[in-house]
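Hi C.,

You asked whether I'd gotten around to modeling the 242-residue construct. I have! Everything is below, sequence then structure, no commentary in between.
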Amino acid sequence: MHASHKRYLSMFRRVRELRSADTENAQLAAPLLELDGIITRVNEHGITQDTLHRRTRALTVTIGDAARTLRRDLLRPARLAARTVFPTVDNGATALRSVMRMPPRSNDNEALVVAAHAFANAVEEHAAAFAVAGLPKDFPARIRKAADELVALIDTRSKEEQRRMAATQGLAVESQRGLAIVRLVDALVEPTLRGDAARLTEWRKATRMRSFVSGGAAEPTPEEPIVTATSNAGDAQTKVAA
């Protein structure tokens, strides 16, 4: 969860805590009930986002391992065996070696998968010769299986990334709706606290968004500037104003 969303969630919880006795207030009951739902959903989106972020990172590691295994343990032996099958540059050797050229070492796993299937087809086409060279009969099937498993891992990571992005969008939407609710509650509550300086100060502190700078928190400003979703003024503490 981004730091700004954490601060929003903290604000929403604090506002809800301070107005916990207002559930019977006709004006505040509905906004506070909606704020309860927002708090729950922001928390759920945050958990989902973090979980999927960790999962996609783990899948990236797994994909890297699977790609290296495919290259090292399957494609490389097939390429070396091709030199044994056709040791001279004739009798089909040039064409075969062209087909069985190793893909560049990069993060282009799609290119690796395509090359793997080309290798498998070439080995299968010259099955008897490759068997003499020492490759097992099921070697093409092993290559295809490893390539398909790599594709499945890539697809799984893509789906998880899409779900993570949806959770991130959910955080943004719920946070903005929560800010709108806090502004409404603030407009209804603050006039009732103007005769109690201590409670008014506490309330105003609860409905401020604090920005942080390196080395600690900034001091609150005495005014009530207009709030934006994210502030570039790292040393400002802004009031959630209407």
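If it helps when you're writing up: The chain has a mean pLDDT of 82.

Thanks,
B.
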